[in-house]
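Translate sequence into structure tokens.
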Amino acid sequence: MFREGVGDAVPMSIGIAAWGLVAGVAMAKSGMGVPLAVLMSVIVYAGSAQIASLPLIAAGAPAWVVWATTLCVSLRFMAFSFHYRPYFAHLPRRQRVALSFLMGDTNFALFIRRFPEPAPGHRHEDYFLGSALVTFGVWQLSIITGIVAGSGIPSSWGLGFAGTMALLALTCTQLRNPFTWVAAVVAACAAVAAYALPLKLNIVVAIAAAVAVGVLADRGPAAGAGAKP
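Result follows.
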């Protein structure tokens, strides 16, 4: 299972590397300094949260705004954890905590595609670890390369567009039913409508709108079932 996880994750490495390189260059140009940027990358391990926090830090935003933004951006990991629970509940807590650090969008998409439901007799953690280690390794190598290279990489390379397209492609793999599509459209519309807000708070508004749609969609069928005689 470990090798299968590695094999499934390798084709995704190009998109991960592009996005990591973009994130690294952005961190280098934010004025954080190489040691601090590398430390943040290793400890945080959440590209979207890092990218979302950088302009706020550079703009001198209050700490609560930075924390609120990164918290909202990272809320999806809580949803990932709930989904992983049936697969890993039998593992010791220390092992579950260690595995949780390696959670990411890419390996979550791969894991759910491979195991839509828990499969008895399978070591799900082996597959998860195989794909997660590839993702983590490629991400750290690419983002640290971007941090070290820094301003030496010209904007004419179009890496920002490549990274955005890689993230968009990853997002599209999660749009599996009408509710997720509605949430995505609502988030996009909210982000555009709130674009004039300072400190890029339109990102927070978009996330809140998408979460609200998801909560309503999740409660809708249950409410409807409870109303039946």
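Note: Residues 124-149 form the longest helix (26 residues).
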